[in-house]
Amino acid sequence: MLGTLKRAVGRTTHDFRECRRCGTTLDGPTARCPACGSRDVARYEIE
Ligand SMILES: [Zn+2]
């Protein structure tokens, strides 16, 4: 199941950030949430 999903996505490594406080998805290497100003940002990597 997981193997099938990985093949479907391909080799592209993608990461994104999401504010832990308000849930806003941040674009690019932003260290601070533009919506609420929080620096508590979670970073996710998707392979
Ligand atoms: Zn926020």
Task: Please specify the SSE layout and strand pairing.
Elements (H helix, E strand, L loop, with lengths): L1 H8 L4 E6 L5 E2 L14 E6 L1
This protein binds zinc ion.
Report the C-alpha radius of gyration, rounded.
13 Å
How far is the N terminus from the C terminus? 15 Å
Bound molecules: zinc ion
Poorly predicted runs: none
Q: Per the principal axes of the C-alpha atoms, what is the gross shape?
A: elongated
Describe the strand arrangement of the main beta sheet, using strand numbers: 2-1-3
Query: Number of DSSP helices?
Result: 1
Which structural class should the secondary elements be placed in? alpha+beta
Query: What order do the SSEs take from the amino end to the carboxyl end, as H and E?
Result: HEEE
Q: Domains counted in the coordinates: how many?
A: 1
Strand content: 25-35%
Largest beta-sheet details: 3 strands, antiparallel
Number of strands: 3
Summarize the amount of helix as a percent range: 10-25%
Protein described:
The protein has 47 residues and is α+β, with helices and mostly antiparallel strands. It has one domain. It contains one helix and three strands, in the order H-E-E-E. A three-stranded antiparallel sheet has the order 2-1-3, with no helix packed on it. A hairpin with a 5-residue loop joins strand 1 and strand 2. The protein is elongated and about 40 Å long. The two termini are 15 Å apart. Bound molecules: zinc ion. Zinc ion (ZN) binds next to loops.
